[in-house]
Description:
This protein is α/β, with parallel strands linked by helices. It folds into two domains: 12-44, no CATH class; 48-225, 3-Layer(aba) Sandwich (Rossmann fold). It has helices at 23-33, 36-44, 51-61, 79-88, 123-130, 151-172, 190-199, and strands spanning 70-73, 97-101, 111-115, 136-141, 173-184, 200-206, 217-225. The longest helix has 22 residues, at 151-172. The protein is globular. The termini are far apart. Residues 1-5 and 8-16 have low confidence and may be disordered.
Amino acid sequence: MTEDSGAPRLLKVRVKTAKKRTPSSNRWLARQLNDPYVAKAKRDGWRSRAAFKLIEMDDKYKLLKPGQRVVDLGCAPGGWCQVAAQRIGSADTSPRMVGIDYLDMDPIPGVIVLKKDFLDEDAPDTLFAALGGEKADVVLSDMAAPTTGHHKTDHLRTTHLCEVAADFARQVLKPGGAFVAKVFRGGTETELLAGLKRDYASVAHVKPPASRQESVEMYVVARGFRGGEG
């Protein structure tokens, strides 16, 4: 697999309308067919175009290092697991990458996949066991709540997911660790950001190039987990 995130130009593909498809489905299909990152992900063997978002953020912030232990919350279909496992050198003989999702996901070399809701009470203990009794160096979350089409509702639901993921990270991260999670622009995440700034040495809002320009998604990249200090 190549990790060059440069996206090639594609000739625009027109989508023929179909009676069974809604206008929104046609728009989604057209966007997929004309998205250079979708084509590049297929060509390079990544399971989703989202892999490039993590590649771009890691290239900038150097989050993933060989030998680390990493957790991916809501990991299906596995693009972020692929990237992280490759960059930390996780192998089947000594797996250091754990993905958690209640959805089915095909196996990935070097990744322990737990079919489980990370909100379950026993999820942290199950995770520790999967990591050999060690805490994680990095917690990743590309989760977003299913969209309703109502911007404020979608923002609040995804912000809540990020808040829960941040709380989970506090339980499983080792001091100095990092947390990366999806958020939506909207101005109501003040409390979330305040908590992250309290818990981590540095917090940044990031919109990687692979994130569609029209999308309201952004990511928080929090580094230097204080481990319950102060």
